[in-house]
Amino acid sequence: MSIRSDRDLLVWRKAMDVAVACHRLAHEFPTDERFGLGLQKRRAAVSVPANIAEGRSRRGRRGFARFLSIARGSLAELDAHVQLAQRLGYVDAPRSAPILAQIDEVGRLLNALRNALDSRGARIGTSSTGYVVRAQRVCNSSRRNDSPKQDIGHPRPIPRDQDPGPKTDKPET
After folding, report:
1. Please, are residues 55 and 61 in contact by the beta-carbon 8 Å criterion?
2. Residue 166 is inside which H or E element, if any?
3. What is the sign, positive or negative, of the torsion defined by CA atoms of 9, 101, 79, 42?
4. Can you tell me the distance from the alpha carbon of 96 to that of 86, in angstroms, rounded to the nearest whole number?
């Protein structure tokens, strides 16, 4: 299955489920807290799938990874809000436990997606280009403790078919 939009991402769908559950849970808060902790919790919950969607719409892995990190921060904020609501007695433990489990699952999915983006980014540019860059070792033979240094033999890549091969210090006879 190809990923055409953010809706195709499992992490986005799970984050939307968390947002819906948190909105429903916020309606159970006392009336004086609906615009305090309840509003902060709803905003953090909406921020997670919104940042995933915005990151997915960016060009390049770097922008996507940045927004996944922001979504991860919003998810941590949401986790704190749910736990605080539980401690304040606005919601009981059996009611908040499934939401906290969903938050943990979304966190694991966000981490996995971020790690996948990072590992793929590390492989960018490592494919074969058909060019050879030759490096020669340069040693100063008058000093015994000098370590060999790398020096680029050619300032630009040489096509494989034009590469003369390794140079030797032996005179031709």
Report:
1. no
2. none
3. positive
4. 7
Amino acid at 9: L
Q: Count the neighbouring beta carbons within 10 Å of the beta carbon of residue 47.
A: 20
Residue among 74, 79, 104, 96 at smallest CA distance from 29: 96
Distance CA 170, CA 73 (A): 63
- What is the average pLDDT score of the chain? 75
Tell me the CA end-to-end span of the chain in Å, nearest whole number.
64
d(CA 26, CA 90): 9
Q: What is the pTM of this model?
A: 0.65
Strand partners, 138: 149
Kindly state the helix (H) or strand (E) to which residue 151 belongs, with its residue range: strand 149-152
**Residue appearing with tokens 């540019």:** 125
The Cα 133–Cα 154 span in angstroms is 7
* Domains detected in the chain: 6-122 (1.20.1440.60), 131-155 (no CATH)
Measured torsion, CA atoms of residues 60, 66, 69, 70, in degrees rounded to the nearest 10 = -120
Under DSSP, the state recorded for 45 is: H
**What's the pLDDT band for 34 if we cut at 50, 70, 90?**
confident
